[in-house]
Specification:
- The chain has eleven helices and nine strands.
- The chain has 282 residues and is α/β, with parallel strands linked by helices.
- The strands form two sheets. It has a six-stranded parallel sheet with strand order 1-4-3-2-5-6, sandwiched between helices.
- The two termini are 38 Å apart.
- The structure holds adenosine monophosphate.
Length: 282
């Protein structure tokens, strides 16, 4: 596995491949790798000849400096995993390499970034948009792989690709979970054993709400029940919303949209977790 730390090194490594028609797959990550990341990488290997993974904890997408400072970093372990899975190239830039100067560019994804994560993490999707545009520009892959665990992020990135006419195919893959149902997340490393049990309220509520919806129950009364469940367990719920899976628009019934999902975010202790479930597929 090649470990490259500069834009120039990545560009020169990949320019040789591009001339030889090799297809390049790209998996951007913030490290602290788990099976969810590895699943994206395995799919990238399946669908491309050469796979680049980046590890970069992007400061501009954290609206909360404490969250950034506490973001788990397990670089040595990550590198072992990436070598084992035979990734071709790891792009490992320092902050200075990506942001030699503080960027002035802010991105607005009208209608997409003012709800859910965008509402509770102001500026988050601007940071995501700018860093993903930069990384895609450096790696210039044929395909880039993202997790549906971050459903709104996928919608934002699809819009970015479309609006900037970028020549890359976005492949979104299902959420990988622990046997308990808990969605894998780098932030889970910060949960105690007890908190990990408490965190199951997210997937249990999503599953319950989905089955109630499909049984014809009213969304607003389902959501009230869920809110009561969270408050009785002393878990701070930020949102629990039924949305159109493509536009992220909040809806109040499953008839209102062709494909819809329920998205949620909650604090378990001081760890903020997100999850979602598809109710009706495309
Ligand atoms: P992160 O390192 O959290 O920025 O995530 C890097 C990529 O992995 C993003 O596209 C995430 O959506 C994806 N990802 C994170 N957790 C999971 C999971 N449990 N299953 C599948 N993909 C995931």
């Amino acid at each position: 596995m090649k470990i490259l730390r500069t834009k120039e090194a990545v560009k020169s490594e990949l320019s040789i491949l591009k001339n030889s028609q090799t297809s390049i797959g790209f998996v951007p990550t913030m490290g602290a790798l788990h099976e969810g990341h590895l699943d994206l990488i395995k799919k990238a290997k399946l669908y491309s000849d050469y796979v680049v993974v980046s590890i970069f904890v992007n400061p501009t997408q954290f609206n909360n400096t404490e969250d950034f400072d506490k973001y788990p970093q397990t670089l040595d372990k990550d590198m072992v995993l990436l070598k084992e899975i035979e990734v071709d190239c790891l792009f490992l830039p320092e902050i200075q390499e990506i942001y030699p100067r503080t960027p002035r560019l802010k991105m607005v994804f009208e209608g997409l970034d003012n709800t859910l994560e965008g509402e509770f993490r102001p500026g988050h999707f601007s940071g995501v948009g700018v860093v993903v545009a930069k990384l895609l520009n450096i790696v210039n892959p044929h395909k880039a792989f993202f997790g549906q665990k971050d459903l709104q992020q996928v919608a934002v990135i699809r819009q970015l690709i479309y609006d900037l006419s970028l020549d890359v195919e976005i492949i979104a893959l299902p959420t990988v979970r622990e046997a308990s149902g808990l969605a894998l997340s780098s932030r889970n490393m910060r949960l105690s054993i007890q908190e990990k049990k408490e965190a199951l309220i997210l997937i249990e509520s999503l599953t319950f709400a989905k089955s109630e919806l499909l049984a014809g129950k009213d969304w607003l009364s389902i959501r009230n029940q869920i809110e009561d469940r969270f408050s009785s367990q002393n878990i701070r719920l930020e949102y629990f919303e039924l949305v159109n899976s493509a536009t992220m628009e909040k809806i109040n019934s499953i008839e209102a949209s062709a494909s819809c999902s329920i998205c949620t975010a909650a604090y378990v202790g001081d760890v903020r977790l997100i999850d979602n479930i598809t109710v009706i597929e495309d």
